[in-house]
């Protein structure tokens, strides 16, 4: 009977230690572990999708109206840059930067 | 505005300009009204007299077709030169973002006028070529800028 009780106590103690260790492990690895793969993916260089992402003004959940406004603003800036080139045609003025986020 | 201030009529005598404009038909567009649609037959050109005309092209966005503004035309400017240039189909859609007055000049009337007064017809066509040529140069420059960016993206 004492042996049985001793075994039971040791089992409970082991269970408690395991539960504590598991809790600590899951707490420390919570959000960081979830974020880690995403940041690893976004940090990885891509020849294809990163450029497309960079040109897109916002992710897919951005309202269409916002995208349209940004696109029209980009067109206005590009037209202004093109007209500036026609007024003073040089290689520099042809490829001069604008403040459009879609052009950078 | 006095419509002879338009870019299309530069260089015309006052009499020719007056007579040409007398062949036009004034239209008032309420805010949001459409002037013409992409792909439709272009039987006339339009001079903006008051307000503003917004020229748009369709773009697919989020599974829908949206109209994106590519140009705006102000008083004194010409809209819809496809009315004078074959194949006489509008290549943009035009609408009025605010209450706007335009003068519609039908191609058939313009051709009659140009036939009767070739000097005036020459000046109008020269002005039209200037307008179209400027737009071509702007679009060409925009296209080259985009090509340059494409090359930069491709080369990392």
Question: Could you characterize what this model shows?
Answer:
- The complex is a heterodimer of chains A (104) and B (156).
- By secondary structure, chain A is an all-alpha fold.
- Chain A has a domain at 58-96.
- Chain A is 73% helix and 0% strand.
- Chain A contains five helices and no strands.
- Chain A has helices at 2-28, 30-43, 49-55, 64-87, 91-94.
- Chain A is rod-shaped and about 100 Å long.
- Chain B has helices spanning 14-22, 107-116, 118-154, and strands spanning 25-29, 34-36, 44-50, 53-61, 64-73, 78-79, 93-95, 100-106.
- In chain B, a hairpin with a 2-residue loop joins strand 4 and strand 5.
- The model of chain B has no long low-confidence stretch (mean pLDDT 94).
- Chains A and B meet through helix 4 of A and strand 5 and helix 3 of B.
Instruction: Give start-end ranges of low-pLDDT stretches of chain A.
Output: 25-54
DSSP strand (E) fraction of chain A? under 5%
Main β-sheet description of chain A: none
**Tally of individual domains of chain B:** 1
CATH architecture of chain B: Sandwich
**Number of helix segments of chain B?**
3
End-to-end separation of chain A in angstroms reads 78 Å
Major sheet details of chain B? 4 strands, antiparallel
N-to-C SSE string of chain B, H for helix and E for strand: HEEEEEEEEHH
| Gross geometry of chain B | globular
Give the spatial strand order of the biggest sheet of chain B.
1-8-3-6
How much helical structure, as a percent, in the residues of chain B? 25-40%
Would you state the CATH class of chain B? Mainly Beta
CATH level 3 topology of chain B: Jelly Rolls
Distance between the amino and carboxyl termini of chain B: 52 Å
Q: Structural class, from helix and strand content of chain A? A: mainly alpha
